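Input/output pair, single chain:
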Amino acid sequence: MRIPEHIIDQIKATVNIVDVVSEFVQLQKRGQNFVGLCPFHKENTPSFSVSLERGMYKCFGCGKGGNVFSFVQEMKHLDFPSAVRDIAKNFHIPIPEETVADPSGEIARSESAFRALHTAMTFYQNFLLSESGLQFKTYLINRSITEDSVQKFSIGAAPDEWNSLLRDLTDKGFSKNHLLDAGLIVVKDGGGAYDRFRSRVMFPVKDSYSRVVGFSARTLSTDKTQAKYINSPQSLVYNKSKVLFGLDIAKRAIAENRNALIVEGQVDVVMMHQVGFHNTVGTSGTALSENHIGLLRKHADKITLIFDADDAGQNAMTKAIEVCLAGGFEVYCVKLPSGSDPDSLIRNGGLQTLKDLVAKAMSWIRYRTSQLIDQGKLNDSHDKSKALHTMLDWIATSPDKLRHPFLLTELAQTFEIDVALLQSHFYPYHPNLREKKSMLGERWLHPEDIAPLSPPPPVILPAEALLLRIGIIVEHSLEMLLHQFRIDKHNLWSIAGQNIFDSLNRASDEQHDITSYMLHDSELSQVEREVVTNLSKPFEKVSPMWESHFDVEMPVLDYVRPCREALTRIDLRRIEFEKSQARFQIRDAVDYDEQRRSLIEYNQHDQRHADFLNAYHNYATSKLWLPAGTQSES
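Output:
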């Protein structure tokens, strides 16, 4: 269902942002704005400002900002449509939904599956609370799971009958196909059906929006031939590699700590929450995947892995480290006592031990080194070299290039070797690390002979920020950029800059309120929308009182010159990058001829850079950013 655009505009025009923010922040009037302590980071002096006139908020401490929709998204961890609906509900604004075409019927089937799963959860909860559910209640008590936890995680139980759920849901109007889509029944070859889950404790698996997508069912039987856990199958609404158990409950605590604790099982999650680790989620018995950590990206910067202490758990943790690093997270590991898991450690009186281990969680480098020592795999130089190459590969997968030097330093300290030696084997722009010799003329060319790389750029370059800010704020400036300067998004350097330029074009085409459009443009990431917030601040202007009181002629603001200079600076950055790439080609050359060709290419880039710098002093009339042979009107 899509929310009509005119309803979004109505909400923006109707809702007082100060009223919404005041539910979470104690605001005080200061001048035309309202100020308070920022809800997004800890501070003692108010740096969070809300403008009633503009309908915007901005924290000058952590940099977060936006409109009423982005505020509710951040505070309640909702997507944009959910935030709109939440605000509309609180302010009694009806939303007439537009019908989405569903030619395959898949959307309707999914909605029916969601309803069936929610109804099944209620059925299992009611059975647990009935007299027939006594043995299951006793099991939960023996596992030290409290009534509060049972309610918090919607835990229930399935009767020891073949079709009790099937009968109940059929009586409520669900068809056999609905229950099959939900994974709640098994259909026999002859067409008959029976309940998938029988005589088990039921843990509902919910997505981040608290919708039941499946179940994990634990048997009470001690029969070794029975699986301890059985789980819902993959379905229209359930993909186990895209759901983290407990995320719907834990996401607020994760966002507050910027740290997600990841364990393996459902009971581990329940017990961790029960003793105060409210930022815990579980993988539900499957390997941690790229999709899993993608769910955590907007809530956390750090991941702490707490897997079982058996061989299977430790192997899973090793694989999880690599996935988390590639996802851009800071990764820490908790090494539990032999033979334990979080649940058993807590129940057996080891809560303080667990708290100490979590508080002093090891960096993944220390953990992996300790693990290899325990396995006897760091006994000689060959083993150590192999381990170093593997960990260098892992570091290279981290998208945060600024973190690489710190990780290399820690790795060098852990293995007690010279950090410069590691750096000489590490090429940030080459994920497949390798050592190569290279030769120029009659002598060997070492990495020290080549100038260091330029640091990776920020989200957007300052020159891009100036250009985009003019385009957003100054009237008719986008037409100037498109027609007078003849630029498109490819003139910008960064991906974020190009995306924001695209959004600016869309906003200009679709509506007059450019800033508001861009701030909830679904094509932009959260980081890019925060950049837009910063760019939307008006330029300082000289008061017109000067002209009337002091009889001075006010200068006409010239935006052509700064645009021309910004474009030239961006192209300078592009040339510098090409030079750095040429340096790598020299360093990676496998023979004399290849290195000679790379050196010639480097010199050409260097000469172009020098020529560009000379021409840059005449940027007021230059058009260096234009393709060769292009004519531009001034």
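The longest helix spans residues 560-588. The longest strand covers residues 212-219.
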